[in-house]
Amino acid sequence: MSRLIVVSNRVNPPADSGVGTAGGLAMALAAALREDKGLWFGWSGQTVEQYTGQMSMQKVGGVTVALLDLEEQDQQEYYNGYANRTLWPLFHYRPDLVSYERSFDEGYERVNTRFAETLLPLIGPDDLIWVQDYHLIPLARELRKRGVKNRIGFFLHIPWPARRILSTLPRHAELVEAMFSYDLIGFQTEDDVEAFTDYAVHDAQAVLSKDGVVHAWGQAAHVKAFPIGIDADDFAETLKSERAELFHRTMLKSQGGRKMLLGVDRLDYSKGLEERFTAYETLLANNPGMHGHLFLLQIATRSRDEVDAYQDLRARLDNLSGKINGAYATIDWVPLRYVNRPYRRDELAGIYRAADIGLVTPLRDGMNLVAKEYVAAQDPSNPGVLVLSQFAGAAETMKDALIVNPLSREDVSEAIHRGLTMPLAERKRRWESLFHNVQTNDVGRWRDDFVACLKAADLHPTEDTDLTPLAVGE
Questions:
Q1: What are phi and psi of 246, to 5 degrees?
Q2: Is residue 199 a part of any domain in this protein?
Q3: Does residue 190 sit in the same domain as residue 304?
Q4: 192 shares its domain with 241
Q5: Which of 19, 74, 112, 267 could bond 138 through an S-S bridge, CB–CB 3.0 to 4.6 Å?
Q6: Could you tell me the CATH number of the domain that includes residue 244?
Q7: Is residue 203, in this structure, part of any structural domain at all?
Q8: Are 35 and 14 in contact (CB under 8 A)?
Q9: If pLDDT is split at 50, 70 and 90, which confidence band does 21 have?
Q10: Residues 273, 401: one domain?
């Protein structure tokens, strides 16, 4: 019987819909695998003194998981190194933060080989294999070397960089060539698809056929956008939970009649937190009449503390939040509440619902599911307003948000002001359109569309296949 095998760097399915911190990838994959009775394979997050290749299998939240331990050297070179010091900043358009070290590259290849060797005995002849994200780009190539003929798909959860940015990566051609061992390559947006095919055409002389198949390096891969969503129905149930209602009441009491602006992000330089704080500072400077009548709650969960760039960012945000509060706070009003602790998904649902403005202003993001969760949490009779970066993947379909350039403090400041003064009728109209999008393009559709395409894509051209080169984006 055919199964779906999902492979990702970390395996962390939530125990239930309300417990645990909000994680877009974890929530999406767990929702997919519960229905398909599949297998989730990946790193346990634990390190051992010496790698043995042994794995453990267990059931978590209705999902069967297979966990592999890695060595400390693997963690430093593959995860902290190539994945998070090389690919992450590069793919988020920050080449100035990229670290190029040969040991990182070697660790990345080594761990992908270990994943392939350990996964191999678990693969049945009819299983579909779905590999997730930038940590595991070479995995299909390693599986093919070991004789795996199964359909293998790959989905990138972060942005794909423009050709000129990608070309700064040593051995960039080898990385992209490895992707052509997949049968299906999925991206979040059409912009990402165009960036990928632009590289393939100009740097690998690829040929694009009209059916969406890209031919390069003697191989063929179907390339398509699959915008990820949330489990909208499950999130609606979460809003009814006792914990969500408690946090909603707590936030309303804490607001004291003030308007609340809300940001919920992982503490990362891609999220535009410094620019957001500066835009809020501009709003306060330009609108003294608003003082005492609003505040910004920024939840920024710490991550990757061992990476220097993240330590530096945290220090800058601490200083900036202190500067803003020092300049504007009074004895009974703190304009910026900056919190670094994580919150459970049901707790966040209640916090979302209380917010008048949802600020989702990354400098670059694959999709950003916070935007969709914020919309799903709103009161239909009195919804808040979503302020959304044009550089978030979500902006491609969530057109009724207030779309902003996160690099412009004036643009973001003016959008916040517009949202705070927006008539109820307009807020309702915009929210209804956004909520329809969230419900329609949910995680179930993402899963079904990807798996159906992986099953159906004809990757073996016949004499009738049109291989006439197409212009990128045609």
A1: -60, -45
A2: yes
A3: no
A4: no
A5: 112
A6: 3.40.50.2000
A7: yes
A8: no
A9: very low
A10: yes
The answer to whether residues 297 and 215 belong to one domain is no
Q: How many domains does the chain have?
A: 2
Which residue has 């390693």 as its token pair? 142
Given a cut of 90, whether residue 363 has pLDDT beyond it is yes
pLDDT band, very low/low/confident/very high, at 447 (cuts 50, 70, 90): confident
272 & 125 share domain: no
Same domain, 198 and 127: yes
Looking at the structure, do residues 449 and 434 belong to the same domain, yes or no? no
Six-digit token pair at 322? 């202190």
Beta strands 184-187 and 152-155, pairing class: parallel
172: which 2 tokens? 């960039």
Cα dist from 65 to 39, 418, 451, whole Å: 6, 47, 19
Q: 87-118: b or e for each residue (b if 16 or more CB lie within 10 Å)? A: bbbbbbebeebbbeeeebbebbbbbbbbbbeb
| pLDDT exceeds cutoff 80 at 38 | yes
Residue 469 lies in a domain: no
Closest CA to 207 of 219, 195, 191, 192: 219
Give the pLDDT mean for 317-334: 97
Any residues with CB less than 8 A from the CB of 17 and at least 6 apart, and which? 231, 234, 237, 238, 345, 346
CA distances from 141 to 6, 9, 112, 208, 221 (A): 16, 16, 9, 21, 13
pLDDT given at position 104 = 97
Query: Where in the sequence numbering do the catalytic residues fall?
Result: 157, 365
Same domain, 451 and 410: no
Question: Which domain range does residue 47 map to?
Answer: 4-229+445-456
Is residue 466 assigned to a domain?
no
pTM: 0.92
Q: Which residue has the higher pLDDT, 444 or 404?
A: 404
